[in-house]
Design goal:
Layout (H helix, E strand, L loop, with lengths): L3 H19 L1 H6 L5 E4 L2 E7 L46 E7 H12 L12 E12 L9 H15 L18 E11 L1 E9 L6 H21 L2 E9 L3 E4 L1 H6 L8 H15 L6 E8 L6 H15 L6 E6 L7 H10 L6 E6 L5 H9 L4
Helix pairs in contact: 1-3, 3-5, 5-10, 7-8
């Protein structure tokens, strides 16, 4: 039977998850993100939970609790005025809650009704795992099983008639020693790579990049809950493209024109050089405000997608972040070429931060 404290803790965790789920859209639209703490744990700021307490009611209502005191007075003298001057502004009502990646992913999945991802059947990496599930008679001292060794020695002494219950001394011999023994099993692991591409030309401002940063965090969180191993690559582009680290990806801003094909070419090269599509589940994401230099370059983009990227990927995702300077034409071109219901191409319009949650559902809702 569970200890009452454990039951209370489980109930508290359930309340916390409910609070986070209820405010998930507001939380994401504000651009707030859990802070990684290591070991798969995240620190999540959230409003504090007030503990209920009794107060005196109106005496005219009758019933228990009557006596001296005014309506609203706390019981047992709680809440008496403190010392010092009154402060200004609203107090800090937030607390930090530690949650695991799986717990956060479950909240996101429940809120958006996300299906579990079914990796491509042939995207399996073989690995060997040693599991200590049996007992052997030889092994190093570090794997010695003391309880089993003691039992063997006890059985031997009883069988030989040398065991004295009044003086229960059990001395194992070498033949009594038992060790944990490993069974080597072959397991298959699904691995994934996410390749983010973003237009960093002058028309993509800080607000647009903040939307991409927030959305990519939650996309990563969900994918990490679905795959044992995941790698993330970042590409930025204006008229030219280059691979960068995460920090550079979200802070770079250029003033040149836009050639989307430069990013797709680099994405194609990364897949060809590092990620055999027979071994990896591949997720390319491209974010832009929809401007491209010319229709000629757009045609080149469509050709790269059809011939190289889409055939080797689980799904290609394009997120169009609305900008006052962006025309949005590339979304229209992709929609015309593939249709909004194309099985392996997902298009999403992200008007503002309030649209992030819906966009995440667009990208992950098919379970590909």
């Amino acid at each position: 039977m569970d200890h009452p404290i454990k039951r209370d803790h489980a109930r508290f965790r359930k309340i916390i998850k409910g609070k986070i789920r209820d405010s998930l859209k507001k939380y994401i639209s504000r651009g707030e993100m859990p802070i990684p703490k290591g070991n798969g744990q995240f620190k999540v700021p959230m409003p504090s939970i007030n503990t209920p307490r009794f107060i005196f009611g109106d005496k005219s209502q009758g019933g228990s609790g009557q006596g001296e005191g005014q309506a609203g007075d706390p019981v047992d003298g709680e809440g008496e005025p403190g010392q010092g001057e009154a402060g200004e502004g609203e107090g800090n009502k937030e607390l930090d809650v530690d949650m695991s990646l799986d717990e956060l992913a479950a909240i996101l999945g429940d809120e958006l009704e996300l299906p579990k991802i079914e990796p491509k059947g042939k995207k399996n990496l073989q690995s060997t795992v040693d599991r200590y599930t049996s007992i052997g008679t030889v092994g190093p001292d570090s794997l010695k099983h003391y309880k089993r060794t003691y039992k063997e020695a006890l059985k031997r002494q009883i069988a030989m008639g040398t065991y004295d219950p009044s003086n229960p001394i059990v001395v194992p011999t070498k033949a009594d020693m038992r060790y944990r023994s490993a069974d080597t099993k072959v397991e298959f692991e699904n691995s994934a790579v996410v390749i983010y591409m973003m237009d960093v030309s002058g028309s993509m401002g800080d607000e647009q990049k903040e939307i991409v940063r927030t959305e990519s965090f939650w996309i990563n969180l969900w994918l990490k809950s679905q795959y044992k191993d995941i790698e993330i690559r970042y590409i930025i582009h204006d008229a030219t493209a280059k691979e960068v680290d995460e920090n550079t990806f979200f802070k770079t801003r250029e003033s040149g024109g836009t050639l989307i094909s430069s990013a797709l070419k680099l994405c194609k090269e990364i897949i060809q050089e590092d990620y055999n599509s027979s071994d990896w589940n591949i997720y390319p994401f491209h974010f832009s405000d929809g401007d491209n230099w010319s229709m000629e370059d757009t045609n080149l983009c469509l050709n790269i997608l059809k011939e190289d990227i889409i055939p080797n990927s689980n799904v290609f995702c394009y997120g169009q972040v609305e900008s006052r300077y962006g025309s949005g034409q590339f979304y229209k071109d992709l929609s015309t070429a593939f249709g909004e219901e194309h099985e392996d191409v997902i298009l999403s319009k992200i008007k503002n931060k309030d649209a992030i949650l819906g966009s995440i559902k667009d990208f992950l809702g098919k379970g590909k």
